[in-house]
Structures are given as C-alpha cells and as structure tokens.
Structure of mannan endo-1,4-beta-mannosidase:
Amino acid sequence: MVAGNGLFYPIIGFASFLVLIYWSFGDLWVNYRNGPELSFVQRNGTHFMVDGRVFYVNGWNSYWLMDHAVDHYTRPRVREMLRAGAKMGLTVCRTWAFNDGAYNALQISPGRYDERVFRALDHVIAEARKHGIRLLLSLVNNLLPYGGKTQYVKWAWEEGVALSSSNDSFFYDPSIRNYFKNHVKALLTRRNTITGIQYRDDPTIFAWELINEPRCISDLSGNTLQDWIEEMSVFVKSIDKKHLLTIGLEGFYGPQSPKRLTVNPGEWAANLGSDFIRNSKISTIDFATVHIYPDQWFPEQELEEKLKYVSKWMVSHIEDGDKELRKPIMFTEFGLSNLSKGFQPSQRERFYKIAYDIIYESAQKNDSGAGSFVWQFLVGGMEEYNDDYGIVPWESPSMYRLITQHSCRLAVSQGVLPSQKEHLKELCLQRR
C-alpha cells in the first residue's frame, strides 16, 4: 500500500535522516540529560547559597574555552579541562563569553555574530553542565586581547558615530553603549542549540561579569565608570533576573577611600578611574571581585614581602565585604609569574596556600570571603596559549594535592560531605 502510493522511499529517507541525527547528536543529548542537576546560585547577604546551603567556590580561569571549542581538533581540550576540574573538586570556571573582531570572533561587527563561534559557546556551556561545573562568564575585555573595548571604539569610529577615538569612550559614547547593550541582549537571550535552554535560564552559568579589569583613566573622579556600571547592571538585570552579576574589578581603592594610602599597592592604583568600594556598592551588583598579582605590583620585592602583602590585601577586602558592602568577595584572579625574581614552583605553591587558607579561615568564621580563582589552568599541548602564570595542575603532584585539599575543606565547610557528592567521595577520602 505505502509503496504503491509512492510514499515508501520518502518515509525511508526521513527515517534515515533521523537515524543520522541521532548518531551525530544523540550521545550528546543523552550525556547532557544524564548530567548532575544544578540549581541557580543565589545570594543571602555575604554568602552564596545553593539548595539551602552556603556555597564556597574553589575555581579557576581557562579563558580559552570558547576559542578552542570552535575547531574540531582543539575541541577535546574543553572536555579534558572541565573533566579535570571536576576531578579536582573545582566548582566554577571563569571564561570569556566574548571575542570581538579577532580570530574566531564571536561578534564580527556590532550586532553581527559568527554562528559557528556561538555554537562553540553553546558547547562549552553544555559540556560544563555535564561535568557539574558552573561558569562565570565575562562579557567584554578592558584590555586589547580578544578585541575588548578598543574594538568597540574602532567600530564606532569607522562608522562615523563615535565622539572620540579614545578607548575610554567605550564607557561614555552613546553609540558604543548601545553596541554593548545589544551584545549583552544577544548573549543573555541566546538559546543553546545543544540544550535548548536560553542562557538567561541556565543554572550552569554561575554569574555574569560585566567587564574584565575595567579602568577609565581619562576620568580620575570615577564618575564615568560609575555611571557605566550603573546603567549596564540595570540593563542586565532587566533581561536576566535569575543570575548573579558582578563587575570584574581588580580591587583598587579610589581617590576618596582612606585605604588608598594603607592598602593599595601604590599611588598609581587610586588613579585608574575605578573604586572598589564605590563601584561595588551599587545595588544591582551582587558580589565584588578582586585580583592579586604581587609580582606585577612589586617586581623588586622579595617573595616574603610579596606574600605578606597578599595576606593584607585579601583580609582588607574580606573586611570590606563584611562591614562596608555586605556582599560576598571573590578573588577571581590570582597568580605568581614564573618570570618573577628567583622563581621556583614551590613559591607559587606557597602563594596558593596563603590564598586558600585565607578563604578557608573566612568560611570557618562565616565571613564574606566566598572563593578564589587561579589564573590560569591549561591542558597539555597548549604552550602557545600559556602566559607566565599558566599551569597544568596534574603535572605537579604537590600542586594537585594542594588544590584538591582545598576543595575538600570547602566542601565540608558548606555542609557537603564526600558521601553526599559522589565526585568528591573518592577525592576527599584520599586526603584523610
């Protein structure tokens, strides 16, 4: 009957198409659905909360995930990194959700996107979900790599709509502000082609970060950057009320802060157009971020002096979180350069241990120190992406032990026992 009506071959053809689709994507769909259930991270005062428990972060930076997910020959590195992070008990990875006008650009020009690269970001989010890793996604760079605010200004200047060719016009030029808002909207409302979930509805995303290391040195009063943060944070929240939001600050105290003289690494740090306290107090900002680079700030100092300063810097900002901001404090970048004076790998381990111990002590005291992120982790064969901070953690047994021990301490601090989380069980039992 079917063959006689001329429908046999179309039906067979359609069935073959469905089989091909399943062979191509079925395993991915199954793996995604079988991944661990994730809830949205929320904030209660100075703490992050997940499923009624305080949530402390042992995190890391791998900014390169989207870039490597674009090409099939580098894509396996994404899974390898996320799988390794989960194995170490890490919970959040900070990575770029931008690439503006560069190689493998996500945003080719204002409002125009390369779907191939967007699908790569879809892949990163889906892969993170499968491994129980959340993502802190940064929306633009203050610095030149991956386009950054310089590329936005260049686009506007080329189109004849910019008021100035200064990089800082990113923060005040109306056309450029609209470029950025359009990018934010495109990201937050993106429907993941793998999971079918809009980004703004996906709990795999821990939080959004407005901009990596914002500085606006053309306005030392800080008013320009403050206005930009206020406007953009309100805009983000108007689209996405489910996710947390942070700025991406380095943590420097501004010209009106008494701590500029006692805690900042130098007078220059108060003259960058940013202010940790003022910027972070904005009601639409959920938590504050701080970066730690003692080798950049004090290149001539001995290691002991640098480490002493690290403790002072971290404790000061945790006090700010408790007393001034009433918000969680996250140290979203910290690292020690292998180009530092007399560098030895053991020096980096000492630095990590100090950072980890301060976060753990804050957790024990119920203070605002909510987590830390190493800059940066790589997998093998990525030498061209390495800077003088990058490490492959499993290549150093002592470093690996240090990281996993911190994961286990935080798990217990937040009321999650190894027996309750299967991926922590074997890891933490080995630490005893």
